[in-house]
User: Fold these one by one.
Assistant:
Number 1:
Amino acid sequence: MPLPALPKRFHAASIWALYGLGLLPAVWTFYLGATGQLIGNPVKIFEHLLGEWALRFLILTLAISPLRDLAGINWLRYRRALGLLAFYYVAMHFLAYMVLDKRLALGVIVEDIYKRWFITIGMAAFVALVPLALTSNRWSIHRLGTGWGKLHRLIYPIAAAGALHFCLAVKVIGPEQLIYAGLVTLLLGWRLVRPRYMAWRRSRREIKTGFARTQAQAE
Amino acid sequence: QADLQFSPGGYDPEEEITPEADATSYNNFYEFGTGKADPAAKSADFNPRPWSIMVDGLVNKPAEFDLDALMALGLEERIYRMRCVEAWSMVIPWIGVSLAGLLDRVEPLGSAKYVAFETIVRPDEMPGQRGLFQPLNWPYVEGLRLDEARHPLTILSMGMYGKTLPNQNGAPVRLVTPWKYGFKGIKSIVRITLTEDQPASTWNRLAPGEYGFYANVNPAVDHPRWSQATENRIGGGGFFGSNDRPTLPFNGYGDEVAGLYAGMDLKANF
C-alpha cells in the first residue's frame, strides 16, 4: 500500500524535525539525571540509554535501503540524519562513560579499552564512525566520488560491532540483546542477498516487458 | 511491608546509609527479569507468605522452619556494606538472624563441610522464570563453606530499613554475606542443605572464569568486564550524588574474615 507522499516543500523541515525528536531522549534523560530524578544508578541509566539509542539509529540507518528495495518507500532523504544521530548518540555514550562514569580518570579508561573486549570493540566502532560523520555532507560526497560509497560501507562492521558490544557488556544475553543483534544480522544479511534479489527482479521485469512486447507485436 | 521488632546487632560501618528508594529500585533478581528496574516493577504478584525453609542434608535434626520460627532465633539490625560484582555498592541496614543460630538447631554432622542454598521456583509469580527466554537455570543455587556459613557476619535477612523485605530484595528471607559479592546473597530461600562436597552456585556454573565459588570482594582480582579496584557508591542526588571509592579487600571486613582463607591463594580461589 503506498504511503501518502510528503509534499516536497516539507522535506527539509521533516529532516530537522527528525534531528529534534531524535535528540529528545538524550536531552530529557540528561535533565532527569542532572536534577536527581533518576533513581538507583543515574549515570549507568543515562549511559545505557545513550548506547541503546545509538544502536536504534544505526539500525534505522541500515533499514533505509531495504525499505526502498522491498517496500518501495523512499526515505533516503532521512538517512544522513539517522546516521548522524547514531554518531551523536555514540559520542554522547562515550562522553557519559568518560566524564560521568569514569570522571576523566584517563588511566582507568585506557585500561578499560585495552583490557575489556566489549569496550575495545565499542571504542573501535566509535573511532570508525568519526570519518563517516565528518564526510556526511554534500561537499564530501562530491569530493570523494566513488570513494565515498566505499568509505561509508564501514557502517556495516560498525553496526555489527555495536550489537556485539551490547551483547558482551551484559552478564547474560537477554531478549533485548537478541533483538538488536538479530535486527543487525538481518539488515547486514540483506546486503549479501540484495544483488541476487535485484538481479532476479530485473530479469522478471524483463520477462514481463518482453512478454508485453511480443503480445503487442502479435496484436 | 510490616514493621519489625529487632535489637541492635553491633555492626555499623559508619558510612552514609543508601537511600531506601535506591536500595529498593536498583536490584539484580533475575527471577523477575534481567533489568535493574525489573525486580521492583515485576514482583507485585509474588507471595512471600506463608513461607518455610527446609533445612536438611548432613544434619542430626532436619527440620522445616516457618518465618515465625526463623524470627524467633533473634532479629538483629546489621548495617553492612554491600558490594556488587558489577562494581557498585550500597550501605544497607539489614534485619536478620545469625545463620549459625539456625544451623545449631539442626545439628550438622561431622561430615558436613558445605551449606547449599536454593531459591524458590514459581514461574506463575516470577516473570523471569517463564517464557521463551530463560537467562539462568532455575532454581538459583548458592553455597558456602560451613565455616563461612557459621561466621558471625553471615545472616539470613528478613528485613531492611526497619521493615520486612520487599519482594525485589529477596522476600521473605535471603542470605547476606557482606564480605562477598552480592550475587552470593541468594534470595527467597526455600531450602538449605548441608553437604560434604562443594555445592554448585548459579553464576559459577554459568561462567566459571568470571564468577568463582568464593566470590570474596577482592580489588586485586578483576572481573573480565569490570575492574574491581574501585566501586560506585549508589546514592541519591542524580549524576553527582554517587561517588567512586576504592574497593577494600573482603569489602572492608578483612579483620573478621581473612582468617577463614589463611594459606589460600585468593587469585586462584576467587
Number 2:
Amino acid sequence: MSFEFGLLAASPPVIPNYGGPPGGSHGCIARNGTFCWDWVKGHWGDVLQPRLLEHLELTVIAVGIGFAIAFSAALLAHRRRWFETPFGAFSAFLYTIPSLALFQLLVPFTGLTVVTIEIGLVGYTLLILFRNILEGLRCVPGDVLEAAQGMGLTGRQILLRIELPLALPAISAGVRIAVVTTISLATVAAYITPLGLGQPIFYGLATDFTTEFVATAALAIALAIVADGVLVLTQRMLTPWARARRRTA
Amino acid sequence: MIFAFDTFKPHTFVDAFRFMADNPALMWQKTVEHLQISGAAMGIALLIAIPLGVWLGHIHRGSFISINISNIGRALPSLAVIAIGLGIFGIGKTNVVFALVVLAFPLMLTNAYVAVDNIDPDVIESARGMGMRPHQILLRIELPLALPLIFAGIKTAAVFVVATATLGGIVGGGGLGDIIVNQASYFLRGVVAASIAVAALSFAANFAFALLQRAVTPRALRKGLRSIEPDVSTGVVEAATA
C-alpha cells in the first residue's frame, strides 16, 4: 500500500519531522511505534502548536462567515416564508456532498488555496446554522409576540429584544454543532492545502511516521472537545434563564 | 505536485454518469466494499449501543454518561479517529471499521437511552399493575414505545457512517473513498461519480432502516410512520428538528 498524496508533495520531500529534540533520547522515534512522547515534546513548537492555531483560525473564520450568511438567510426566511425552501434545499444539498470530494470540486475555481477550504467549510455550516436559527426564531410563542406588539414594540424592537434572546438557546446549540463539525472537516481540508491539524495527519500518513498522525489526531480530538466545552459554558452564561427554568421545572 | 487537477466543466456531472456506465465493475466493487465497511461498523455499533442504551434506560441509571457521550461523540473529528485507529490497527479495513464504530456508537446509545428513560412512568406503572414482570415490561412496553427514537438514532448513525466511510480511502480502507482520493486515475468525473454514489448510499441506508423500523413496529403504533421519507439532515441537526 502506498500513500500517494500528490498535494503534499508541495511540502519538502524528505522527512523533516522525523527527528527528536536535540540531545533527547530518540529511540522511540527510530522504532516508529504507535506513540512517541519525545517527538511530541520536540515538535510541539514547530509542528503541533502552529497547526493548532491555524486550525482554530480556519474554524473561527468559517463559522463566522457561515453564521453571517445563515443568520441573514434565516431572518429573511423568518419574514418571507417562501425563502426557506430554496435556501434549505441548497444547504442540504451542500451537506450531502462528501467533504473530500467537495474540496476537490472547488479547486478548479479557487485553486489550492485557503479560500477553497473556507468555501467548503462555510458550505457545511450553512445547513446546521440556518435550521437552528430559523427554528429558534419560530419557537417564540405567539402570545409573547402579541404581547410585545400590544406594548407598542416595533418589528425591529421585537426582533432584537424578544425574538433573538428567546432564540438564543437554539442558535447557540447550532453554533456548537457547527464549530465541532468544522473542526472535524478542517482536518480533511488539509488534503487540499497543507493548513491546520490535518496537515501533520496527512503528512504522517504519507511518510508512514505513526506518532505524527496519532499525536496530531489526539490534539484535534482534544481541540474539538475543549471547544465544545467552552461553547457549553458560554451558552449557559448567555442564557441564565434557561437554567433557572430547568431548576424550577 | 504529482497530479494536476482536472479542469471543471459544466458537463463534468454528465461525464460522472457516463463514468458510472463505463466502469460498472469498478463502481460495483467499490460500492460493495463501501457497504461491507459501513455494514460491519453499523452491525457492531448496533449490537453494543442499543442493548446497553435500552438497558440503562430501563434501570434509569447512567444518565450523565449516556447523554453526554453523544456530545463528545459528535465532537470527535472523524479523520482524527481514523488516524488513531490506523495507529492502533495498521492499514486495512479494521481501523476504518473501528473508527466508524467509535463515531456511530454515541449517536445510537444516547437515543436508545433517552427513548426508554423518558417513557411515561404512568404507562410503566399500569403495566406493573397488570402483573407484568420487568422483562415483559422491557420487551412489550418500553421497547415498542421507544422504537421511533431508537430508530432516529440508528438512521442518523447510518447516514453518518456511510458518509464517513469515504474517509477510509485516505488510509487504504477501500470503498468509494478509494475513487474520491484518486483523482489522478479517475479524474474529476470519477470523483463526482463516486460522490453521487456515496450520497445515494446514504439515502438508501436511511430508507432501509426506515423500512426496518416499519417492519418491527407493532401495527397499533404505526400511525406516524406512513411517510417514510429519507431526510439526511433530520437527525444531524438535532436541535432544529426535534
